[in-house]
Amino acid sequence: MATSGLDAIAIFIKVIESGSFAKASLATGVPRSTVSARIAELEARLGVSLIKRTTRSLQLTNVGQDFFEVTRRSLEEIEAAERALRGSQTEARGKLRIAAATNMGEGPIGNAIADFLMAYPEIEIELELGQRRVDLIAERFDLALRLGELDNSSSLIARPLGSIARQLMASPSYAAAHPIRHPHELNPRDVIGFAAEHSVELFHEGGERHLLDCRGRIRANRMTAIRHQAQRGMGVALLPTALTLDNTDASGLVVMLPEWKTTSFPVHVLYARQYALPRRARLFIDFLVEALEINR
Asked: What is the 3-state secondary structure (H, E, C) of the chain?
């Protein structure tokens, strides 16, 4: 129904509740002549008489009484929905739907989510983890966390969270049994890598580069599996310490050759440009930026 139709119904309800056209005019701020015209237009559109007019009072017809009861309930529900929507935009409550890469659900990001929910008990988070890049608008996600370069999309706004790099990590027992001073001393068979990576370039803080052979005995397509094998002492893994691990002590891993790292990859939080960002989403983004402190 057009907005003018809803306005006419709202005026009709106010006329009945107040008992007269004059009182409805005062209550709504709409001129009395306009109030009368809106009721006449509503009756003409419906093809029925809603109100019996006398010189002293207004009386509803039978169909008018039925229409009044139904529309008053409906208008109350609409007003309640509007209040709830306004509250969700300005108050710290409601659900956040967030999409992120599989490995982002643990470590500092996972901890930040838990801490955020403890700080804001009226907010809920639905976290979908996976490797695919979701369509925020079509799939109705509030936010997405992305690692790596972004696609050019005018429909999304990206806020940088920082950047991360991978480092060589191993179990304490492996590191003690295989002391090295340079990546070329690593046995390629002991490098636990991603299935899609045959080699990775490492950069020394002094400017030197080294191409690391990643075709080891164990390769996987999930970081959690790679980390698990490193924890078992099966070799050396390239892992993003700043993002997926709380710290090396908690993970049971140590950093080997800390002066060597891979290229840094940017981390962003994305949201749709076409929608007003609710307060709960803004609060989460600010909380995440402060909690992660990536690259510090």
From this structure: CCHHHHHHHHHHHHHHHHCCHHHHHHHHCCCHHHHHHHHHHHHHHHCCCCEEECCCCEEECHHHHHHHHHHHHHHHHHHHHHHHHHHHHHCCCEEEEEEECHHHHCHHHHHHHHHHHHHCCCEEEEEEECCCCCCCCCCCCCEEEEECCCCCCCCEEEEEEEEECCEEEECHHHHHHCCCCCHHHCCHHHEEEECCCCEEEEEECCCCEEEEECCCCCEECCHHHHHHHHHCCCCEEEECHHHHCCCHHHHCCEECCCCEECCCEEEEEEEECCCCCCHHHHHHHHHHHHHHCCCC
What is the CATH T-level fold of the domain 167-261, as seen in this structure? D-Maltodextrin-Binding Protein; domain 2 (3.40.190)
Which architecture does CATH list for 94-163+265-292? 3-Layer(aba) Sandwich (3.40)
pLDDT in tens, 45-99: 999 999 987 767 788 999 999 999 999 888 888 877 776 666 555 568 889 999 9
pLDDT tens digits, one per residue of 224-276? 889 999 999 999 999 986 554 444 455 689 999 999 999 888 888 999 887 77
Domains 3-90 and 94-163+265-292 share a fold: no
